[in-house]
Amino acid sequence: MKDEPLIxxxxxxxxxxxxxxxxxxxxxxxITGDPAVSHSSNLIEMIESVLQAGGIALHEVDLxxxxxxxxxxxxxxxxxxxxxxxxxxxxxxxxxxPAEE
Length: 101
What we know:
Structural class: alpha+beta
Largest sheet: 4 strands, mixed
Oligomer: single chain
CATH superfamily: ATPase, nucleotide binding domain
Strand content: 15-25%
Shape: globular
CATH architecture: 2-Layer Sandwich
Number of helices: 2
């Protein structure tokens, strides 16, 4: 089972959204958002909660999965958003104390 990739999945295409962490096809932890609250106000907290519930540190994640909504008519924009999200998450571990150089 350790040979399977550790995946952090983020879904914001629906009103509620959700976050899950899985090893291969086995879901370790998941959370569904509140449809009355904007993703922008609680997405980071949802990610932190799922990682903590799964006993996973962000730097252990092998893959990031991002859902793209059905109304995306410009695939280049969606691809750019995914690339930027990946780059941001890639630098996130460097922002925790003690900072690494």
